[in-house]
Design brief:
149 residues, alpha+beta, 3 helices, 4 strands
Length: 149
């Protein structure tokens, strides 16, 4: 007579093997690192778009947006505006950092002749260190990468 189905021991053994394999995959892939990398890539993309808009604003107005030598931070936004309201005509959205708190935010400042915009990176420190700026933990863009510390 043939036996049908699995015994309790076989089921428990199969579940244990699946649990071990799943934990190995989770530890190996580190899903939290993927989220950090994704946010860092957004930061780089947003800074690129903001930089183009800042340059366009200067071409049209003869000066950079905002008050000279003031540091603007995206976590201090009023609504969706954190640089200046007139700047909104040059970009669809004044992008904000994906986390946008006191540690992770966009910062922007300018002098009469130069500007800098930056963001703190979570995991992608190679891009931050290789951007020719003065801060190895923040990705920097602009015409003078020493304006922000």
């Amino acid at each position: 007579m043939l036996k049908q189905g699995l015994t309790l021991v076989e089921v428990i053994l199969a579940m244990a093997i699946i649990a071990i394999l799943a934990s190995v995959v989770v530890v190996t892939l580190k899903p939290q690192d993927y989220a950090k990398k994704s946010r860092d890539l957004k930061r780089i993309d947003y800074i690129g778009q903001l930089s183009v808009a800042i340059e366009d604003y200067k071409l049209d107005n003869g000066e950079y947006p905002g008050v000279e030598d003031v540091v603007y931070a995206s976590n201090n936004a009023v609504g969706n505006v954190w640089i200046t309201s007139g700047f909104s005509n040059y970009i669809v959205t004044q992008y904000m950092d994906p986390i946008n708190d006191n540690d992770y935010n966009f910062r922007y400042t300018h002098t009469q002749t130069d500007y800098e915009i930056d963001a703190k990176m979570e995991i992608n420190l190679t891009d931050a260190a290789g951007d020719s700026g003065n801060n190895t933990t923040r990705y920097e863009a602009g015409t003078d990468l020493t304006l922000l510390n």
